[in-house]
Amino acid sequence: MQQADLFDTASGLPTGPEGLTYRSDVIDTATEAHLIAAVDALPLAPFRFQGWLGKRLTCSFGWSYDFDTAQVAAAPPIPDWLMPIRRKAAELLAIGEAELVQALLIRYDPGAGIGWHRDRPIFGHVAGLSLGAPATLRLRRRRENGFDRHPVSLARRSLYGLSGPVRTLWEHSIAPMEDTRWSITFRSLTDKGRRLLG
Ligand SMILES: O=C(O)CCC(=O)C(=O)O
Ligand SMILES: [Fe+2]
User: Fold this and answer.
1) Fe2OG dioxygenase domain location, by residue (predicted)?
2) What ligand 1 atom has the least distance to the C-alpha of 104?
3) How many angstroms separate the alpha carbon of residue 167 from the centre of ligand 2?
4) Residue 79 belongs to a domain with what CATH number?
5) What is the DSSP string of 1-48?
6) Among 14, 47, 56, 176, which is least packed by CB within 10 angstroms?
7) Does a structural domain hold residue 170?
8) How far is ligand 2, taken at its centre, from the CA of residue 174, in Å?
9) Does residue 78 surpass a pLDDT of 80?
C-alpha cells in the first residue's frame, strides 16, 4: 500500500494527512464551561435522521447545513460571543476570520456520533473546537485495496483544522460518544459555494 504521504521522508515519522492541523489548549477551562452553557442555551434541534446518529443536536449560524441533508439555507448571523473562537479558528487555518462565514454547533449526547462523510463541496476550510468529553476524529481515504486511516485524538479545548487534501480527499467521522461532547465548527466557502450562495 502506498502511504508515503503519511510519513516524513527524512525522519520516517508519521506526519498525518496533508492539510491537517491541530492545536491544544486554545481556551481555558472557565471559557470552556461558559461556551458549553452558551451552546446548551441555544435552540439545539435534533438532526431529523431516524437512527443511531439521531442523538446529535445542532444549531447553525451564517448558513445552515447538515452533512446528509441536501439543504443549505441562510441562518442567523454568527453571534458576537463566537467571534473570539472564530478568530482562533482562522489563525489555525491561516486565513482571514471573515472568510469563516458558517458556524455549526453540535452536542453529542451519549450514543451520538457522526458517520463517514466529507463536508459539502460549497464549504472550504473547516476548523473545529472540542468541548467536554475527548473524542477521536477518524480519518480515512479510499485506496485501491481498502483505506488509509489516520485517527486524531481531539482533547477538550483543542482546535483541529481541515484544509487541502485532508478536507477534499479524506472522509471523517466520530464514533458514538460515551460522554457528552460539544463541538463548534467554522467553515469558509469555496468558489463554488460563493457562486451558489452569493
Ligand atoms: O464535531 C465535530 O468536530 C465534527 C463535525 C462534522 O464533521 C460536521 O458537522 O461536518
Ligand atoms: Fe464534517
Assistant:
1) 99-190
2) 9
3) 9
4) 2.60.120.590
5) ---GGGB-TTT--B--STTEEEES--S-HHHHHHHHHHHHTS--EE-S
6) 14
7) yes
8) 9
9) yes
> For ligand 1, is residue 114 a contact (CB within 6 Å)?
yes
Q: Whose CA is nearest to atom 6 of ligand 1?
A: 114
For residue 22 and ligand 1, the question of a CB distance below 6 A is answered with: no
**Quick check: is 83 in a domain?**
yes
Model pTM score: 0.91
**For the chain, how many structural domains are there in total?**
1
User: What spacing in Å lies between the alpha carbon of 141 and ligand 2's midpoint?
Assistant: 14
34: domain range?
21-197
Q: What is the pLDDT of residues 6-45, one digit of tens each?
A: 555 666 555 689 999 999 999 999 999 999 999 999 999 8
Ligand 1 pocket residue status of 158, Cβ below 6 Å = no
The ipTM (two decimal places) reads: 0.99
